[in-house]
Amino acid sequence: MTTERPSVLQPEMPPTRWGDPAHETGLPDGVRDLVGLAFPIQDTPARADVAVPAPRLGDAQLAGLRAIVGDDHVVLDDALRRQRTRGKSTPDLLRQRAGDLGDAPDVVVRPAGHDEVVAVLAYAQEQRIAVVPFGGGTAVTGGLVADPAGLGGVLSLDLGRMRGLLALDPVSSTATLEPGLRGPEAEALLAAHGMMLGHFPQSFEYATIGGFAATRSSGQSSAGYGRFDAMVVGLRVATPVGEVRLGSAPANASGPDLRELFLGSEGAFGVITEVTLRVRPLPEVKEYEGWRWASFADGADAMRALAQSDLLPTVIRLSDENETAINLADPESIGGEGNAGCLMIVGHEGTPAAVAAKRAAVTEALTALGGTPQGSGPGEAWAHGRFNAPYLRDSLLDVGVLVETLETATFWSNRENLYARVKAALEESLGEGTMVLCHISHVYPTGCSLYFTVAAPAGDDPLGRWLPAKAAACEAIVAAGAAITHHHAVGTDHKPYLTAEIGEIGVEVLRAVKRAVDPAGILNPGVLIP
């Protein structure tokens, strides 16, 4: 087939905020009332007048890059370099707002396809320039912050020109996509053929196919459609020493699955230039609803029962008592009545017959387990605002409220221990006025993911308050024997804790792979590997 591309390119995110400024609505009344009671309101304007550091690359090096991708695609513009500085975690935004641009790349290079990526990497290796692949810029664990020590500069490899649907195999239900396609663009191209991926993380509107693969992303519909890495059947990867192609069959026994070396590698082992994925027909019906549980533990037990009975719906999420009380599923109703207990969101997608059968079975099971149906209202409210939480985070930062998230995963038998340890660590570190909210965002027969949202007074040094709190939470996760990350990746933030999870031998394996595919150490140096 001829390569198909999006008809309209989405706008860039501003460097100090999330998303499209036109979609910001400010603080809902319920949130404003809550903030007024719990936090001191203060003005925290973002600085936009700070110059980006001068590029460290010489004229000859820039000429070499222009010879590969063309003059128009080697960009030194301060505005674009600022947009390519770090990701969208709260610490990233706080540094940007304070005018700290010390991690800005020296140049932004925009290749048109796989062959140009290969050539750029070979040239960067020769010139000893660090290369940081850039997709949507949604990283929240420091994955876009390279350590250029011993190298001559940092090149942001912007994959935004590589936004094509390269192949569609309707017989095998696979599609090959380029890495720069954002979530909505990929779904729109597939929808034109009656197909979909079904991968909808909170970053969906801006994150890219390459980013999903490089971070082993998990979406809000993972209960029904699976994690992104489970959708991947093939990869094409550019490395400084050559090309890697993986995925000649749906499954094989040809030794360890080398796709796993690059899924989750965060650009440290290579640049993913093509991803072949399992696709499925568009659902004819989507139905979302709410369920109420007496406690977080009761709701979690119900989720476990569904998962272990092979009864999972397409979407299932459970908020703890605190998150339910302020009703993050529908921020406009914060402070409303009737918020006792814990709210579960359940969603079913598929053909009318399949949805009706699964919904009936799930309803029977949840009722028997003690759940109370709440109708479609809570579910539809969640579906309507499922990608809006980062906008609320930014609005809270504007008025002096420190807000950040973190996530982990563990086995069912360890869930309560992990939950209690992380919550206590955050509350103790941040002190009076701290709110710790949690929901179970992804479930498996053997365990689940816990996703924490933290709000506290920002004070005069919000970054200085958050970093020790995040460290305390990570130490609590390690002490509980849980995963340091479930779907946000390692980056630089979680790197100090990776050895505790995979062991010294595991770290040596990663280092050996790095030496094999990136002998000069130019690929996203300082990320992932302790």
Task: Furnish the topology, listing elements before pairings.
Elements: H1 29-38, H2 59-69, E1 74-75, H3 78-83, H4 90-97, E2 107-109, H5 114-127, E3 130-134, E4 154-158, E5 165-169, E6 174-177, H6 183-191, E7 195-196, H7 209-214, H8 222-225, H9 228-231, E8 232-239, E9 242-246, H10 259-262, E10 271-278, E11 280-281, E12 285-293, H11 296-308, E13 315-319, H12 321-326, E14 342-350, H13 352-368, E15 372-375, H14 376-384, H15 389-398, E16 401-411, H16 415-430, E17 435-443, E18 447-457, H17 462-479, H18 498-517
Parallel strand pairs: 2-4, 3-4
Antiparallel strand pairs: 1-2, 5-6, 6-10, 7-11, 8-9, 8-10, 12-14, 12-15, 13-14, 13-17, 16-18, 17-18
Helix pairs in contact: 2-5, 4-17, 16-17
Summary?
With 530 residues, the protein is an alpha+beta fold. The chain has 18 helices and 18 strands.
Annotation keywords:
alpha+beta; 18 helices; seven-stranded antiparallel beta sheet; five-stranded antiparallel beta sheet; 530 residues; single chain
